[in-house]
Write a structure and sequence with these properties.
Elements: E1 6-11, E2 16-20, E3 25-28, E4 34-38, E5 43-44, H1 48-58, E6 65-68, E7 74-83, E8 94-98, E9 108-112, E10 115-126, H2 128-137, E11 141-142, H3 148-158, E12 165-170, E13 179-180, H4 192-195, E14 209-212, E15 219-222, E16 228-234
Signal peptide: 1-21
Domain C-type lectin: 127-233
Pfam families: Lectin_C
Length: 235
């Protein structure tokens, strides 16, 4: 059933795409601020192709990534990528990730009125830069509430968690000019009094990043070095 032949669609120093004959495509991936769960300590396999096939064969439904060392032939099976998990070390070699949104942990559709978003809510304390990087590593971006319905969806998710949460907005480059972190587009100031809490933003002690208070579901500018939960969204 499992054939070990593969097609190397693109393989060089920077990238390598491996298409297995069993219908799965894995892409060689460099990661930072996220990494795969390890399903096993690994074994010595005969080839890159065999490593991928055996990962799928042994861990059906759970193999979303694998690591392969092209000198020692160590094969380490991996699950979904998660924020702040470590990437492959020198012993494990290169990381190959399934070419599918399913390879990234926690994502699912959430809706409010006209807004439907594929998102993942990570209740892990990170600073703003780490939140941006973790979302990028997970092939997504920090949540951007660019409409009233998306804002209300975000507020609905945050309500009741008893913890503030980063949103993908900042005025790091120009004080007072807030932009969305995913594309650099300016925040529509018509929503300032609706989205932000009273007397905010105030840039108290040089606050350049934006988070939502869990108790009143309003935005506040805060220090980018503070740590809060975060939500990633896929476009």
């Amino acid at each position: 059933m499992y054939k070990h032949n593969i097609f190397l669609l693109l393989c060089g120093l920077a990238s390598c795409t491996v298409a297995l004959a069993i219908g799965r495509v894995f892409v060689k991936t460099k990661v930072s601020l996220c990494g795969p769960t390890r399903l096993d300590i690994g074994w010595t396999d005969r080839s890159l192709a065999s490593c991928g096939v055996n990962c799928i064969k042994r861990y059906q439904g759970y193999c979303y990534s694998f690591m392969f060392h092209n000198v020692t032939n160590l094969c380490t099976p991996g699950g979904q990528l998660m924020p702040l998990k470590s990437g492959p070390d020198e012993r494990e070699g290169d990381l190959f990730v399934l070419l599918s949104d399913d390879a990234y942990y926690g994502f699912g559709l959430e809706s409010y009125m006209s807004a439907t978003v594929n998102l993942a809510f990570y209740q892990i304390d990170v600073n703003y830069t780490q939140a941006i990087g973790a979302c990028q590593c997970l092939n997504s971006s920090l949540y951007a509430a660019k409409s009233l319905d998306k804002f209300n969806l975000y507020a609905q998710l945050v309500h009741g968690v008893a913890h503030d949460t980063w949103i993908g907005m900042n005025d790091i480059e120009t004080e007072g000019r807030f932009v969305w972190s995913d594309d650099g587009q300016p925040f529509d100031t018509q929503w300032m009094t609706t989205f932000f809490q009273f007397d905010q933003p105030d840039n108290y002690l040089n606050e350049d990043c934006v988070e939502m208070h869990w108790d009143n579901q309003k935005l506040n500018d805060d220090s980018c070095n503070k740590t809060f939960y975060f939500i990633c969204e896929k476009q």
